[in-house]
Amino acid sequence: MKGKSLVSILDYQVEEYLQIIQLASEFEALKHQNILHGKVVGSLFFEPSTRTRLSFESAVNHSGGRIIGFSDSNTSSSTKGESLKDTILTVANYCDLIVMRHPHDGAAKFASEISPVPIINAGDGANQHPTQTLLDMYSIYKTQGKLDNLTISLIGDLKYGRTVHSLLMAMMNFSPKFNLVSPKELCLPVEYKKILNAHSVPFNEDTDLHTILPETDILYMTRVQKERFSDPIEYEKNKNLYVLKSSMLENTKDNMKILHPLPRVNEISQCVDSSPKAYYFQQAKNGMFTRQAIISSILGLI
Ligand code: CP
Question: Which atom of ligand 1 is nearest to the CA of 123?
């Protein structure tokens, strides 16, 4: 991991996933205090964010480092026509590592190819969100005590959902069964199904949320992402198809946990929040520990 960019979850092997999970638990136990002392992290968010940006900032602050950057690209010189290449080459002069979110698929890969400092992809368009996946894996491990042989049901926008794409690619290494529940228009892209098939990973595509609930260990809800639709009518047609309510949890397994990368819109009713099966806010907290682990590993400090 040392010195390497994290662009796709496929950049890491199974042992590296496990190493990040172990390190995240150590950061949660308040080990490795001030490990980022003297380090500066660049944070370039060309697309809105609450959790990813603030948990990266919190991770750096809690570890004694400093963070610079922008949360709104309208305040950067990209509004004057500066290219992404020039922005990266400039900011790399000021920091040891760059965290970047960008609306275009492939932007993080491009940045990693020209940057003299490592790039961490904080989400690129509908493509990948690898640090979200690592925090999701830490959350799965903490709640299930294991990563292997779980039934993981992913609900909602499986076409544009970058968190879904990254999670499938990582968890396929742990003998899962996947239930993929979406409207037909938002089903998982064929390139990901081909990878699952090539690795003989069982998956079931469904349009009904109710049928898969009783066997599910991890229920991964996702938002239908308005910002990815070119046709507003298509968004309106699909936006409220899956809404999880408390009554639907009655026949679910005791160990089942509900995850959601957030933000949510309507897909989890607020009455679910008080259920012991609701884990999405703890999941967001796990993001801070996981990102401490990722940054420290890439900077070769641990
Ligand atoms: N999960 C996630 O990426 O949330 P934000 O868009 O708020 O960063």
Answer: 3
